[in-house]
Design brief:
There is one protein chain. This protein has 9 helices and 12 strands. The chain is α+β, with helices and mostly antiparallel strands and about 270 residues long. It has one domain (about 20-265). The protein has a 6-stranded mixed beta sheet with strand order 1-5-6-4-3-2. Strands 7-8-9-12 form a 4-stranded antiparallel beta sheet, covered by helices on one side. The chain starts with 19 loop residues before the first helix and ends with a helix.
Length: about 270
């Protein structure tokens, strides 16, 4: 599914992605710090979960309990700090692009050229093995890996008692065919992501999947660039460690064209 059309920034909208000269002058760490700033208040009293080999992976029962505790914690903080988004507001985000699934609701706001996603961070836990306390960091990991489809955190929402994280993402035009597997794999290699089991590509910190040609999570834009819209990202270490690793990682030469292409769009 194409998630958007353009990267122009609407300077009259309070919910704009960072762009223009400001964005060009930011380092990877500064961009990550901006993203962390959006969720800083939600980091109160967060504690680490065990990581490591498969023996340390939480059972389904443990995960369910951890999700319940984290959901209540985030609800309480969001409501205290004006970050809780009610259903009435969500319904005004824009035109719904698809019906609600177990993973997210998607809305298109043509005026802002943005996609709004109301995501269930615990969907596909069997694949992601996401520890509950890392849910608020998932979009930051995505942003460091795939900056030209950068998410912006908007707030916390609730659906029948379940946690939802509300994000925006640029709307990308893609009238071209989907990229080939070879193009996708080649780009992932520039990010240091190598084959990591069937359909997975990763390193010692993170692995991604659901990015093959059979998926609609990778688009080839009208500009010929690849755009990873919503791949499944599995963290192999605590999110803060993964973020620090990605901040200090230098993409291979081919990846730099992505950043140049992104900066050109934002500077228009």
């Amino acid at each position: 599914m194409s998630n958007g059309t353009r990267f122009e920034q609407n300077n009259n909208e309070p919910n704009q992605h960072i762009g223009g000269v400001l964005y060009q002058n930011l380092s990877r760490r500064e961009m990550a710090d901006l993203d962390r700033g959006d969720i800083r208040v939600l980091e109160k009293e967060v504690h680490d979960q065990p990581y490591g080999d498969s023996e340390n992976v939480q059972t389904t029962l443990e995960q369910t309990r951890a999700e319940q505790v984290e959901t209540k914690r985030l609800f309480d903080i969001a409501k205290e700090n004006g970050l809780f988004i009610d259903r009435e507001t969500i319904d005004k985000f824009g035109d719904k692009l698809c019906t609600k699934t177990g993973e997210c609701e998607i809305f298109y706001n043509e005026k802002e050229s943005l996609i709004y996603k109301v995501k269930d961070p615990f969907a596909k836990w069997v694949i992601k093995e996401l520890h509950a306390e890392d849910a608020i960091y998932e979009h930051i990991v995505h942003n460091l890996l795939f900056p030209n489809t950068r998410y912006k955190f908007i707030g916390i929402a609730e659906d029948e008692g379940n946690l939802r994280i509300v994000l925006t993402q640029p709307f990308i035009s893609s009238t071209n065919a989907h990229p080939t597997d070879e193009e996708i794999i080649s780009h992932l290699k520039t990010l240091g992501l190598e084959p990591d089991g069937p359909y997975f590509y990763g390193n010692e910190y993170v692995t991604v999947t659901d990015i093959g040609t059979a998926s609609d999570n990778v688009l080839k834009g009208d500009d010929g660039e690849l755009y990873f819209i919503d791949p499944i990202i599995k963290l192999k270490k605590p999110a803060k460690e993964v973020i620090e690793f990605l901040i200090n990682f230098t993409p291979k030469k081919e990846q730099l064209s992505w950043w140049k292409s992104l900066l050109k769009r934002f500077s228009r």
